[in-house]
Amino acid sequence: MKMLFTLILSFCLIFYFNVEIVSTSPLQYDSIFNFGDSLSDTGNFLLSGAMAFPVIAQLPYGETFFRHATGRCSDGRLVVDFISEASGLPHLPPYLALRKDQLHSFHGVNFAVAGATALDAKFFYDQSIGKVLWTNDSLSVQLGWFKQLKSSLCTTKQECDNYFKKSLFLVGEIGGNDYNYAYFVGGSIKQLRASVPLVVEAITKATSFLIEEGAVELLVPGNFPIGCSAVYLTLFGSPNKTEYDRNGCLKAYNAFSKNHNYQLKRALDMLRQKYPHARIIYADYYGAAMRFIHAPRHHGFTGGTLTACCGGGGPYNFNNSARCGHIGSRACSNPSSHANWDGIHLTEAAYRYVAMGLVNGTFTTPPLRSSLK
Ligand SMILES: *[C@@H]1O[C@H](CO)[C@@H](O)[C@H](O)[C@H]1NC(C)=O
Ligand SMILES: *[C@@H]1O[C@H](CO)[C@@H](O)[C@H](O)[C@H]1NC(C)=O
Ligand SMILES: *[C@@H]1O[C@H](CO)[C@@H](O)[C@H](O)[C@H]1NC(C)=O
Ligand SMILES: *[C@@H]1O[C@H](CO)[C@@H](O)[C@H](O)[C@H]1NC(C)=O
């Protein structure tokens, strides 16, 4: 009887202990490598000149957490910053600022560049829309940077495999700009649907490349619901109410994002078969964002989730002639009361909810927490 009691007690303790570990332990990575665009750039675009978007060098960009502009396209931290924090690691330095002496206590690096595309710049030049690109540092350019850096991290295959086994690779979000550029110069949804398989292929090729280089743990995010973004709502708004869903988002553009995500998930399924030893995790940014778009007040967004905090007027506070940081714009007094920061990007508060959905929630498949080690 006593033994049975002890057994039950220890079972309960073990069970309790496990639950605790699952819910609060930090993620177990020694380093993080991030690829992407403005959703995760921590300074590369600014370091490269930021010709197309110089206002990210000034407040109010960065005002919330860093209290100065860092080159992040938000008021504060991004999803990648919260993932670094959840792993007990420092925020990732931008690759273009990495110094040789930092390689001694290296915990990863960020290759993301604001404005970057999944497809190479040539694709856009071939379609005569190359001039609108903010940057040519597409996903494959970022992979080239990784390859260059790799030689200073490890030499033999064995050494590299051992090194990268303890690393998390974030492949995106990337691809959103491939569509943004085309939509903003007048592309139709029908025309753009044709480019989705190409964008998805660029993302899965990058994922394969990294696995071949030794990555085993990879997180590949889908796209946000673009039909809920202030810039899309402003540029493509319609007097026809049936084009909006119950949250006030443009149905056709959200359907476009969902289609991209669907194709990406299917492509990742195929990659999982090809590389059974790797953990290829899909991150559902769409679902994670939809939670607060659907219930703004429940998440503390008293200023709503569709209207930008920082902008120059208009129904969604996005005005292309007075974008956030430009003359004629102003930022709201409490950015965490808004999900949308500048019409295009989200606030730190919104990114925190997305990160929470990935790290502690159910928006990663398979779950991020049950990692290899
Ligand atoms: C991208 O490359 C093209 C062609 O090489 C060049 O003309 C253009 O200035 C580059 N764009 C940027 C933003 O660097
Ligand atoms: C409004 O949009 C719906 C599709 O969302 C379309 O079927 C309908 O014809 C449109 N109505 C008008 C007045 O344009
Ligand atoms: C947009 O900004 C321009 C330039 O500051 C201004 O003249 C215009 O009134 C603004 N539009 C709206 C809708 O606030
Ligand atoms: C996950 O949950 C833990 C414990 O509740 C919390 O400390 C942590 O901040 C959460 N992580 C994120 C990214 O929200």
Q: How far do the termini sit from each other?
A: 37 Å
Determine the CATH topology: Rossmann fold
Low-confidence stretches: 1-23
**Named CATH architecture:** 3-Layer(aba) Sandwich
β-strand percent reads 5-15%
Reading the helices and strands in chain order gives: HEHHEHHHEHHHEHHEHEEHE
- Cα-atom Rg, whole angstroms? 21 Å
> What is the domain tally?
1
Which ligands appear in the coordinates? 2-acetamido-2-deoxy-beta-D-glucopyranose
CATH homolog superfamily: SGNH hydrolase
CATH class: Alpha Beta
Give the neighbour order of strands across the main sheet. 2-1-3-4-5-8
Q: Structural class of the helices, strands and pairings?
A: alpha/beta
Q: Helix content range of the residues, please?
A: 25-40%
Number of strands: 8
Family: Belongs to the 'GDSL' lipolytic enzyme family.
Signal peptide: 1-24
Organism: Salix suchowensis
InterPro entries: GDSL, SGNH_hydro_sf, SGNH_plant_lipase-like
Structure, explained:
39% of the residues lie in helices and 8% in strands. With 373 residues, it is an alpha/beta fold. It has a single domain (2-14, 27-371), classed as SGNH hydrolase (Rossmann fold, 3-Layer(aba) Sandwich), CATH 3.40.50. The chain has a six-stranded mixed β-sheet with strand order 2-1-3-4-5-8. The chain has a two-stranded antiparallel sheet with strand order 6-7. Helix 3 (79-86) crosses helix 13 (348-359) and helix 12 packs across helix 13. The longest helix is centred in the C-terminal third of the chain and has 24 residues, at 251-274. One 2-acetamido-2-deoxy-beta-D-glucopyranose binds at residues 312-314, 319, 321-322, 328.
